[in-house]
Amino acid sequence: MDSTAQFNTATTGARTTTLPDSPCRHTPKCPTADSPDREAAHVVASHPEQGWSLLCNGVLVFEDTGELLPDGRVIAPHRHLAVVA
């Protein structure tokens, strides 16, 4: 990452972590890794055979809807439950 990148700060528990802004080169820019809509970022690498995709904001999204953020935080799977009628 270049030294001109801007940073966001995310606080988890007692520690503070710095997250880089989305490295998007397209318009409009994708949401950053700490944005609530982070899953809307563009896919830059997809490995469906392994069950994961890398988004341009550095988030790894897994097929079970879990996520791994660039700072190492884990977002638990949050898929919707199927409703049987």
What does this protein look like?
This protein has 85 residues and is mainly β. It contains no helices and 7 strands. The strands form 2 sheets. The chain has a 5-stranded antiparallel beta sheet with strand order 3-4-5-6-7, with no helix packed on it. It has a two-stranded antiparallel ribbon with strand order 1-2.
Strand fraction: 25-35%
Number of DSSP helical runs:
0
Low-confidence stretches: 1-12
Helix content: under 10%
Principal-axis shape: globular
- Total strand count, please? 7
| N-to-C span | 50 Å
Biggest sheet: strands, sense, closure? 5 strands, antiparallel
> Helix-strand pattern, N to C?
EEEEEEE
Offer a quick outline of the entry.
This protein has no helices and 7 strands. With 85 residues, it is mainly beta. The chain starts with 6 loop residues before the first strand and ends in a 10-residue tail after the last strand.
